[in-house]
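Bug #77: duplicate submission created two jobs. Keeping one. Sequence:
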Amino acid sequence: MNIPAAKIWFPEEDRKAILQNIDEILKSGRLTLGNYGKEFEEKFAAYIGAKYAVAVNSGTSALEIILRCLDVEGFSVIVPTNTFFATPAAIIHAGGKVIFADITDSLCIDPQSVKKNIKKDTKAIIVVHIGGAVAPEIGEIKEICKKHNLFLIEDAAHAHGSILDGKKAGTFGDAAAFSFYPTKVITSAEGGMIVTNNEDIYKRSLVFRDQGKAGFYGNVHTEMGYNWRMSEIHAAIGLSQFARLDEFIEVRREIAKIYDKELGEIDGINPLKIPSNGSSNYYKYVALLDKGIDRVAFKKELKERHNVSLSGEVYELPCHLQPIFKKLYGFKGGEFPKAEELCERHICLPVFPTMTGEEAKYVVEVLREVMSKQ
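Kept job's structure:
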């Protein structure tokens, strides 16, 4: 077998329908901020359980717009060091100052580290739902925000449809950002979505995404916005994928059940535990290698000898060790020991919407063989 790390899937009937919709869009001449975008927003908000949704051109843009709506310029924002570059970068682009925090065994932000890093000028905390699991610590973080009068933002780029305590990702904080990048559980090719129950954030988001204009047809600019719009073509693609979201998640959960069962019998590798009160979409299936195992050599053997590709980690290098942030903030390493350890040890097993149980069992067989040599 040849098992890819991930695979994008558009069934034939969906491709045909998308092309018909694109033809309709082109005939209409309304290529942006039209009916497809509005429908996508309404359906996504209803699915998440939020009052409002705003479609934008990327998950990164969604984060920056939220931060601008909260007026973080000149203030600090706490973010886990184990996240994608875009999370802290959005803070900087919105005029804020980044404060990194360490993580727990869940790969998500550590409440104790957050408490230690709150400053007088701190205005918000960003919780990142890593790999598709809602951060188990989000309840504690919410209490911290309440105590210190801070805003809570969810970076839910990985977490479409994921649940904790009966609530979907995106409904725990003041606002949340989702991504529809090609690797995500659903894609619009490029795109993102802001969800919120806050009417002021919603209204300002509409302005920020369209060059800061007070209205689509006018030319009066009230905010320092940018071109963050989602095109109608991207919205049509997103709507098609959105209709498959629950189906895609169900397949991923079935694959995860196989991995959960089989990996328990293999020494040297342990699945990342999902809390019993949570339900992941398994954007990534994360497992931890025992200390001392060379991850690079491990992945190379899987791919070159057994045709099993592992996806990129979440994340292999914590943000404080990225060259740009080392340069900006002077980190040397060792500042966030838990993040440094877990980022170095974890892997992500193949999972995609067309994956079969047979393919998942082949991955497990290969893992068993390779681990026996460690």
